[in-house]
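TL;DR need structure tokens for one chain.
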Amino acid sequence: MLRVNEDCYAVGVTSRIIASELASLQSAKSRRKNAANKASIVLIDRTLDLVGPAGHHGETLADKVISLLPRLPGHSSDVAVNMADLCSKGSQYSQDVVMPGCLAHPRDGFAHSLLNTMITSKQKECLMDINRHLVEAASEEGLPLQLTGRIGRINADTLEGHLKLFKGNRQAFTNHSGLLQIAMATIKTLKHDRYTMMEKLHSIEKMIMLNSGDQDCPSTLSQIKQFMDTENNYDLEDVMLLLVFVYSLEGGDCHEDEDEEREIQKALVQAILAKRELSDNIIYLVGYQPTEDTVRRGIQKFFQKLASLGQTRSHLKQFRSVFESQGFQGGHKSIFKQIIDDIFNPAKPDLMDIEYKSSGLKDLLKSGFGMFMKVSKPRPSDHPLLILYVVGGITCSEVRLIREAVSSYKPNTQVIIGSTSVLKPTDIIHRAFAQDNLFPDEL
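>> reply
TL;DR here they are.
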């Protein structure tokens, strides 16, 4: 437990409610009275910017692993890794019999360092680091290591060749269990059936962002429709995620062409009716025994929620847009990057969208009457500890982005990043469109 006296800030409607409750919580008030250290906590609504988690850019290897591998049962931030390939001959992976591998190994220094590299470094650097650790581990155990291939060029086959050396060797497996689980997760990801489609979706998202700043280019919705017409191996949720990506990026501007919306709705209805098997998220929208009428109503409801997602920043002043125009091209400027920039800006601009929640009369006077008195308004950077907490999940790429943004200012402030879970793209479809938000099964 962090025994601190914290100032509470909020960005977004849901975060405002949570921050108000936290500021007035009686147990928190008692803790603050006895705390010697001060801190700031900034709560941020996930729905304000869904471009990152809905996208398939996978700037970090950790994001790709989390996106493609199944969840570790009972966890919201880790994956289940099938380790049967390293077990003795005849072993088969079963959740009821053998525990799967995972990514998090806090008591294993090497594995912990590797996981940190997977989150904060580029994929090529991660693969080289994992391979180096495998080679060192094999040498340490006296395994028959053969170094082949080009130096500096590491792929799934290279890692798999080194990993197989540990097969059936119980002592070596035990000594390097965390490393082997992370290496296996990497191999399973790079060889996953969906890996190529993930790269293709990233290319489409990149093209959408580039073309969004050019009025002479096709509209974003027409580009998604073209993808549906020309690609045969996509999942229905791929199209839905592209739509979430676009609506969150462009806000209300995407809702202007109703004819294009109707065309995509019609194409989605036909695609769902043609599918023999539907995912749980699609079933939630259209029912277990979908008819043309139920599917059409489900897709209309989906687009109504899409329009609402496009308006989540409409009440903001500073952070109203996450679309960044770069000449004739466009790009995504994460709301987290914008928040960090404003918090640590040496000019100390007014933080109009970062709302301070007072916990007592003294704080209320300080924040409310600052315009009449010679009292500076509180800022999240006032204290040596700043906690950024994203309500609704965060991606590893966003953790890396925040880390780099904070480092660029070299503040005398320690920043801790927290969230309800580590997100994969399909989580967005489930949480925003395929669960009862009054009684959610996931937060």
